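Quick illustration for those who missed Monday's session on complexes.
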Amino acid sequence: MTTLPNLKHLPQHVAIIMDGNGRWAKQRGLPRLAGHKKGVNTAQKVVEIFFEYKIPHLTLYAFSTENWNRPKREIDGIFKILEERLEEGIKFAQENGIRIRHLGKPDGLPLRLQEKVKQALELTKNNSRMSVSLAFNYGGRDEIVEAARSLILGCISPQDVNEKLFSQYLYTADTPDPDLVIRTGGEMRLSNFLIWQSAYAEIYFTPVLWPDFAKKEIDKALIIYSQRQRRFGSLPPE
Ligand code: FPP
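Prediction with farnesyl diphosphate bound:
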């Protein structure tokens, strides 16, 4: 049983940029794909911990629209790992009432992965204890452009366009904005991740490489989050 530190505020939605698989592998003289394999194990453990902590929404950034610039061997390897591990993910989700969502474009992904994703979404669509969104073939700017395209195609009149409506055209429609964005691996940027939705998110950077990210690190991020004062552009209370 994983115990949650006693905290004043807990985020309802945590979104994670899982960075550092390649460096983790390199440090051990292993191929980059070994880092990604270890990274998926970490992702599974992290889902389990957030589930036990009863944090209702978790988003994991697994593959960006820019990651297509990597060598084909690495891309194929990542997709193969995702496809294989989604099967276990679906089983865990079904046993625990977790809804799996996909953020990003299915087009361009290998057909077998597309099928597996479709199956995961369909099988878990009525689960409501937690939602786990997997962002792959995802880019924040691309998401915004696609939303604008859908609005135009839907002939929405300009006076009806507002932030609430626009949000409904994003992949994250019906999911609250992230309260906390965590990035592992030491870089301090958002890398096109949930750029609309993270407007008021608290951001937590850690040098820990993703495969080494564990309960201790999650607790640290949650403690720091609980100490932040969120003001959403307003003033602190007197
Ligand atoms: C980031 O490390 C990792 C990726 C871009 C690849 C995909 C992530 C996984 C396979 C783990 C999660 C999986 C699921 C199912 C949610 P990097 O390669 O950019 O590392 P580097 O910065 O050290 O080179």
